[in-house]
Amino acid sequence: TILATEAEGVLSLTLNRPDKLNSFNEEMHLALRAGFERAHREDGIRAVLLTGAGRAFCAGQDLGDRDPSKGVPDLGHTIETYYNPLLRLIRTLEKPVICAVNGVAAGAGANIALACDVTLAARSARFIQAFAKIGLVPDSGGTWSLPRLIGEARAKGLALTAEPLGAEKAADWGLIWRAVDDENLMEEARALATMLAAGPTLGLGMTKRAIQAAATNSLDTQLDLERDLQRIAGRSADYAEGVSAFLEKRKPEFKGK
Ligand code: LHQ
């Protein structure tokens, strides 16, 4: 249910249940989690690229997976067991996570894409906060990320109406990094992931951490955090290499250390 390949420091994870629009069942959840756990564990992995197989990115939870004979489901348990650990793994990974939204991203699928660090989308892709259509509340961090990324008015508009938002508009609004012509999406996403994986990934990881911390920190706390992280970055081999390469007018060779 997940295709995992590694090349040039990039772990590519592809959601692979195309006939179900890559919606999540338990097996896919566990496989995707294992992929992100591997990215946490292995130093050789310096960036992750997440995408979907077929015409969709991800249609959220597999709604056909529910067995009505088992009575009223406890969705809180599903969230606690599967979605929240995944979201925490993505956000706490101190390596860039690039998402290539190749087609429709609905429900939890949309919000997982928004939790990634740099999200590109094919021009034909759409983001749908589908929850409202079935009586649910946005999950996978959507109620946190949407207002932060696009403001409360647009967040509520999307979440209450479940109106699809095209990739172009998503980029204009600041929901994602960039909309890309369909035929160029994967090439651009791979180039970006490879470039970041060859970068000073210790510094990039701390940059991710700092920007995320800003959502809840005061300016004073944030200035202290920047001081502490810069102290660490300043002692890194990558900083020494970056400055040497600059002065010697050559390309730096970063090791992520
Ligand atoms: C699907 C799905 C799907 C199963 C398409 N499941 N089969 C967390 C905790 C616990 C429980 C609940 O949820 C959550 C979080 C969530 O993610 S809630 C939101 C769940 N997702 C949705 O409500 C989206 C449902 N899907 C759609 O609205 C449409 O399929 C979209 C807009 C994604 C795509 O529309 P189309 O391009 O027109 O494709 P389609 O609707 O024809 O779908 C193609 C096939 O995929 C179809 O099967 P079939 O056998 O008829 O070809 C769909 O039934 C199946 N499929 N999404 N989530």
TrEMBL record:
Family: Belongs to the enoyl-CoA hydratase/isomerase family.
Organism field: Rhizobium helianthi
PANTHER family: EG:BACN32G11.4 PROTEIN, ENOYL-COA HYDRATASE
Matching InterPro entries: ClpP/crotonase-like_dom_sf, Enoyl-CoA_hydra/iso, Enoyl-CoA_hydra_C, PaaB1
UniProt keyword terms in alphabetical order: Isomerase
Protein name: 2-(1,2-epoxy-1,2-dihydrophenyl)acetyl-CoA isomerase PaaG
CDD domains: crotonase-like (cd06558)
EC number: 5.3.3.18
Enzyme class of the recorded protein, top EC level: isomerase
Short name of any one Pfam family annotated for the protein: ECH_1
GO MF annotation terms: isomerase activity
Coiled coil: none
